[in-house]
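Input (structure):
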């Protein structure tokens, strides 16, 4: 069954803890990204874990294999469930991340590869030397490459998840932001899908921020999304 992850896009530990307590039992899984982690460091991960919640650490590691291996080990010791790396770090880096995660056995962090940031278009790819492939082709190629090199899954747009889940082996994780409940404000997301569509297309985890955090009743908003997901 697909799971809802709420993006804790806030700037302090206090705000994060307050939001998690307010949402209560409605959500079990939270994403901590660059803003919050840079402000508060690993203490905020411990604080959310101490509230009994699981953590997706979205720091998009991209460095030499040894550095990423050691960073994944640090994340494993913090007890995170999911973390992100850039697939452009290439085979040895992805392998190093997967091997470091494997040291934690059943409780290991699952490694998610970012393929092509959704903020990039064809011109941006050309700027960084990727020519002869559309962004969609690059996503598909990097998805095959990253999972083949040891990633447990992918972060992907809800518009990509159908094709990717058909192309890749069962058991691959598909973590999908850009999800908006039917009728919700889209904000700055351009390519969105409803929770039901994303799950139908193969998403295993949906990442939702503002539709929950900005709701008058965040717990009710999360439960409504879960109902749409069938979760
Ligand atoms: O508020 P919203 O639901 O748009 O938040 C989605 C979360 O997922 C944010 O933390 C955002 O940075 C992240 N994300 C995204 N699109 C991507 C990758 C990550 O919206 N392609």
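Output (sequence):
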């Amino acid at each position: 069954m697909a799971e809802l992850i709420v993006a804790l896009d806030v700037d302090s530990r206090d705000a994060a803890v307050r939001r998690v307590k307010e949402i209560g039992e409605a959500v079990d899984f939270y994403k901590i990204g660059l803003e919050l982690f840079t402000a508060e460091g690993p203490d905020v991960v411990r604080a959310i874990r101490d509230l009994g919640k699981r953590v997706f650490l979205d720091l998009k590691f991209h460095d030499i294999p040894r550095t990423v291996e050691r960073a994944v080990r640090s994340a494993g010791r913090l007890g995170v469930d999911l973390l992100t790396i850039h697939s452009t770090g290439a085979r040895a880096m992805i392998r190093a991340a997967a091997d470091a995660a494997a040291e934690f056995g059943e409780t290991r962090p699952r490694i998610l590869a970012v393929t092509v940031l959704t903020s990039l278009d064809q011109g941006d790819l050309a700027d960084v030397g990727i020519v002869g492939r559309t962004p969609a082709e690059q996503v598909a190629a990097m998805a095959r490459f990253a999972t083949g090199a040891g990633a447990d899954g992918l972060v992907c747009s809800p518009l990509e998840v159908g094709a990717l889940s058909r192309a890749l082996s069962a058991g691959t994780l598909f973590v999908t932001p850009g999800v908006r409940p039917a009728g919700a404000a889209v904000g700055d997301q351009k390519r969105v899908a409803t929770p039901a569509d994303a799950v139908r297309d193969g998403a295993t985890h949906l990442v939702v921020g503002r539709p929950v955090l900005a709701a008058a009743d965040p717990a009710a908003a999360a439960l409504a999304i879960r109902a749409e997901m069938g979760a």
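Notes: The chain has one domain: 3-229. The two ends are 6 Å apart (CA to CA).
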